[in-house]
Amino acid sequence: MKLSGRIKPLSYLKAHALDVFRSLSESGEPLVVTHNGEAKMVLQDIKSFERGQETMALLKVLALGNRDIEAGRIEPASDVLKRLRTKNVRA
User: Fold this and answer.
1) pTM as predicted
2) How confident is the model at residue 91 (pLDDT cuts 50, 70, 90)?
3) Which residues, including other chains, have CB under 8 Å from residue 33's CB and lie 6 or more apart?
4) Please, are residues 23 and 16 in contact by the beta-carbon 8 Å criterion?
5) What share of the chain is helix, strand, coil (3-state, %, to 5)?
6) How far apart are CA 16 and CA 31, in angstroms?
7) What is the C-alpha to C-alpha distance for residues 45 and 30, in angstroms, rounded to an integer?
8) pLDDT digit string (tens) for 10-38?
9) Could you give the CA distance from residue 35 to residue 17 in angstroms, rounded to a whole number?
10) How far is CA 1 from CA 23, 67, 84, in A?
11) How far is it, in rounded angstroms, from Cα 86 to Cα 76?
């Protein structure tokens, strides 16, 4: 995704807030807002934000799993399933 066409100064946001809201909702692309020529914030619609958060959570789970593998904290799936079945029978 190229952000260069999605950069606007804060004054634009103030003057065109409704248009910006509509554009964010329709396109799903973020908007970079600048203040005094410097990028200060990124605005995005809630659906895109939620998708990003879900993606980050999944990536974190994968990273934690990779750390466990590298640290040798693994066991065969058959052993795990056997243990779980045993616990369920006792319950």
Assistant:
1) 0.70
2) low
3) 8, 9, 10, 13, 39, 40, 41, 42, 43
4) no
5) 60, 15, 25
6) 13
7) 7
8) 999 999 999 999 999 999 999 999 999 99
9) 16
10) 16, 30, 44
11) 16
What's the alpha-carbon Rg for the chain, to the nearest Å? Answer: 23
Please count the other Cβ atoms lying within 10 Å of the Cβ belonging to residue 9.
14
Contact 13, 33 (CB under 8 A): yes
Query: Mean pLDDT in the chain?
Result: 93
Report the distance separating Cα 70 and Cα 75, nearest Å. 13
Q: What is the pLDDT of residues 51-85, one digit of tens each?
A: 999 999 999 999 999 999 999 999 999 999 999 99
Helix (H) or strand (E) holding 82: helix 77-90
Paired sense of beta strands 31-35 and 7-9, if any: parallel
Q: Which amino acid appears at position 36 of this protein?
A: N
Instruction: Give how far Cα 77 sits from Cα of 2, 74, 83, Å.
Output: 43, 9, 10
